[in-house]
Amino acid sequence: MSYFKHKLLTIAFTLCLGCGMAFAHPTPIQAETTDTVEEAPPMYDALSEAEDTVEDAPDVIESSTETTETKQTTVSATTAAKKTTTTTVTIKKSSAQQKKDNLKRWYNVCNNMLKKLRKYHFHYGYSAGSTFKNALKNGRKCNCAAYVSWCLQEYGAISKGGTFYSNHGSIRKKGFSFDKTKVKVIKVNKGVSRAHLKPGDVVCWRSFSHVCVYGGKDKSGRNLWYEGGKNATNGSRRYVATKKRRSSYNDRQTVGYIIRIIGLP
Q1: What pLDDT shows up at residue 94?
Q2: 171 and 223 both lie in a single domain
């Protein structure tokens, strides 16, 4: 019995010891679980920070939009400046080109005057009017000096109503004075080949009483003249010429004065 009692006591002691150890350590497991749950809130804080970052994003987008609009305005201003420069260059003419245009206009005036003399059946005569319109209403007479005077009036080189003629090299004016800013009067007293004529020059002859306009040279190098005298008429003294023509007679004569229009080549 003693042996069995001793064995029972040993077993009972062992069981009591095991239970005591279990009760002595209940918290470590709960503590570990509790610690894990308590560390979760910082994750929610991080999420809140992320949401704050998203709310700030529109400010960045608005700044980018303003920068783009400013660049577009600058490009438009630059483009407009370039267009202004190009337009200015297109409108502006060189001095040489302007002189060529002036000569072309002067030739057109001389041609058109001849055409009007023929169209309205003018005849050669000494008592011509001071202007073309006046002559058209009164007798329709013209001569070399009247023709050149009307052409100069039309071009604007002398005043309306002003006329002149050449008497063996001397110039006789009526109703005007030469404007030095529009014409230049040059004394020559030389033959045609040595007179240094320029296209468009008004020639006052010394060797005979005559006035005409030098029209340059043709393709063969021969002189051309705008004539408003007898050479521009037919046998009945009616005007038939409509353009400049050659005159071997003029080529052999002496030039007294040149009336040179300012602004021609």
Answers
A1: 84
A2: yes
